[in-house]
Amino acid sequence: MAKVAKVIPKLILGLAVGFSLNLGAAQAGDATAGAKVFKKCKACHTVDAGGKNKIGPNLHAIIGKAAATTEGYKYSSAMQDSGLTWTEENLTEFLTKPKKFIPKTKMSFGGLKKPKQIEDLIAYLKENS
Predict the structure, then answer these.
(1) Residue 4 placed within a domain
(2) Which residues, 6 or more positions from 78, have their beta carbon under 8 angstroms from its beta carbon?
(3) Residues 92, 107: contact at Cβ < 8 Å?
(4) Domain total for the chain?
(5) Is 119 domain-assigned?
(6) How far, CA to CA in Å, does 98 sit from each of 13, 21, 22, 67?
(7) Domain span including residue 81
(8) pLDDT truncated to tens, each residue of the chain (129 aa)?
């Protein structure tokens, strides 16, 4: 009986870890599909290391980067004052409705409607970081 009492907590922990890993895998995006989604962004952004700023800033290594810090790009006051660090979570919100997430941002894009496209785009941006 004592052995069973020791095994049950380990079994529960193992199931919990396995379940959370499966959830993470289900939420992971496809970088190859994200490259196709990025075609919508290419008119205004580059993603290459050392890439130039266009209408919008270069997005290389954007994940984990403080907002409004790409050298040589003139950001809106709203973006400069946002205090954001670009995490996957707030990128998801921003890419859904940029002007709702940061009112008065210069980004004119209306947002992506499909959560899968956002996941894929973020996977692509992570791959290019």
Answers:
(1) no
(2) 102, 103, 104, 105
(3) no
(4) 1
(5) yes
(6) 39, 30, 30, 13
(7) 30-127
(8) 555 455 454 444 444 444 434 444 345 899 999 999 999 999 999 999 999 999 999 999 999 999 999 999 999 999 999 999 999 999 999 999 999 999 999 999 999 999 999 999 999 999 988
Report the CATH number that the domain containing residue 113 is assigned in CATH. Answer: 1.10.760.10
- State the Cα–Cα distance between residues 82 and 68, nearest whole angstrom: 9
Q: Which amino acid is at 125?
A: L
**3-class SS at 10?**
helix
Asked if residue 67 belongs to a domain, the reply is yes
Whether 63 contacts 87, CB under 8 Å? yes
Q: What six digits make up the tokens of 117?
A: 């496209």
- The count of residues in the chain is 129
Q: Distances from the Cα of 5 to the Cαs of 13, 53, 91, 101, 129, in angstroms? A: 13, 61, 44, 49, 46
